[in-house]
Design brief:
The chain is built from five helices and ten strands. The chain is an alpha+beta fold and about 250 residues long.
Length: about 250
């Protein structure tokens, strides 16, 4: 039996100051894809290419903004101010220990970071299997803010062309934290779309995806490119995006 396609979900929350913030979670219909790098710039860390099958999930239409972070926690750690810009200077630990618990308590849902497989599947357009190097195009400037066009700063979310799923800024603007631990290649990686986590090794580096405003070489914004960071690190070029497995 095939899964029915999920519907768009709009979340609306009220901040302690009375401000109302809404954000949309777009449906990503489950399917099977080949994960990893096959283009001429593909690195060893992007191999071996392997088959992954995923269930339906929802992903944030935009990167988490400074407005949403501030509404939930009352502070704004970002270096580049602008409520419609992505929040940055947030560590993996900040997100998982502070922001997500606060959001989930507020909404009664289980928002989380994406697995690396979910991120790449969505960036590639999900069931559309888009053949692009970047999330929505083979011309990076159409879909991404990077060193060549960013003027060395983040930009308001959603200004560039979205990908086939309607998701913005999956390439460029800021890197996105994923749930997975860093691994040197895909040998032994899960094939069900779940996060690849080594139990008992919580201090290990976590995966970063997508490229950022600071990237000078386009290859680092490819949909298969993998980076990583210490879970306690927070940089001006790193943010995150929300994912849901269920609306319940």
């Amino acid at each position: 039996m095939t899964q029915s396609a999920p519907a768009i979900h709009t979340e609306t929350i009220s901040s302690p100051t009375g401000a109302v913030i809404s954000f949309r979670m777009l449906p990503v219909e489950g399917g099977t894809f080949m994960m990893g790098g096959t283009d001429e710039d593909a690195l060893t860390i992007e191999k071996p290419v392997h088959k992954v099958s995923l269930s339906n999930f929802w992903m944030g239409e935009f990167l988490v903004t400074q407005a949403l972070w501030q509404a939930m926690l009352g502070d704004n750690p970002s270096y580049f101010p602008g409520l419609d810009r992505p929040v940055e200077q947030v560590s993996w630990n900040d997100i998982t220990n502070r922001f997500l618990p606060a959001l989930n308590e507020k909404t009664g849902k289980n928002y989380r970071l994406s697995s690396e497989a979910e991120w790449e599947y969505a960036a590639r357009g999900g069931i559309h299997h888009s053949p692009y190097l970047y999330a929505g195009s083979t011309r990076l400037r159409d879909v991404a803010w990077y060193r060549e066009n960013s003027h060395d700063e983040t930009k308001q979310v959603g200004l560039k062309q979205p990908n086939a799923l309607g998701l913005f800024d999956l390439s460029g603007n800021v890197y996105e934290w994923c749930a997975d631990h860093k691994h040197d290649n895909y040998e032994g990686a899960p094939n069900d779309g779940s996060a690849w986590i080594e139990m008992g090794d919580e201090g290990r580096s976590r995966v970063l995806r997508g490229g950022s405003w600071s990237i000078s070489h386009p290859r680092s914004c490819r949909v298969s490119y993998r980076s990583n960071g210490d879970p306690g690190d927070a940089g001006t070029f790193v943010g995150f995006r929300l994912v849901l497995s269920s609306l319940q």
